[in-house]
Design goal:
127 residues; mainly alpha
Length: 127
């Protein structure tokens, strides 16, 4: 994936390390921070959160998509971690410390986006 990012290509991933089958926030894997740390150019991160897919395709048999259900998808503001990464390098942080700090920052962005998406989804569903 680092090679793809270094070529300026899109990489779509589930930073939790798996598809989240619950509505709970799962701790992001440090591999997402590792990808950013190892890139030649700091990639742009575009966070995306959705709510309601569990009503369209529940994880119970029969696995048949259900129409007429509401899904809310919110695309957050793109951001870079260049200034954070530069400071971590300047401070000579270990690879593990860099990965944790980068991943924590991304996690914080997802926590905010999740709350915003849920508020929008349930406001729309309730009205």
């Amino acid at each position: 994936m680092v090679e793809q990012l270094n070529r300026g290509r899109w990489v779509h991933m589930f930073p939790e390390g798996k598809v989240n089958m619950t509505q709970e926030m799962i701790r992001l894997k440090w591999g997402v921070g590792r990808l950013i740390e190892e890139c030649q150019q700091t990639p742009v991160v575009i966070p995306i959160w959705h709510v309601g897919m569990d009503t369209v395709l529940p994880n119970v048999k029969p696995y048949i998509p259900r129409s007429g259900k509401r899904v809310t998808v919110l695309v957050g503001q793109p951001f870079q971690l260049h200034s954070i990464l530069t400071q971590l390098r300047k401070d000579q942080k270990s690879p593990m410390e860099k990965r944790k700090v980068l991943t924590d920052h991304i996690q914080d962005q997802f926590v905010r986006l999740k709350a915003e998406t849920e508020a929008l989804h349930y406001q729309t569903v309730d009205s």
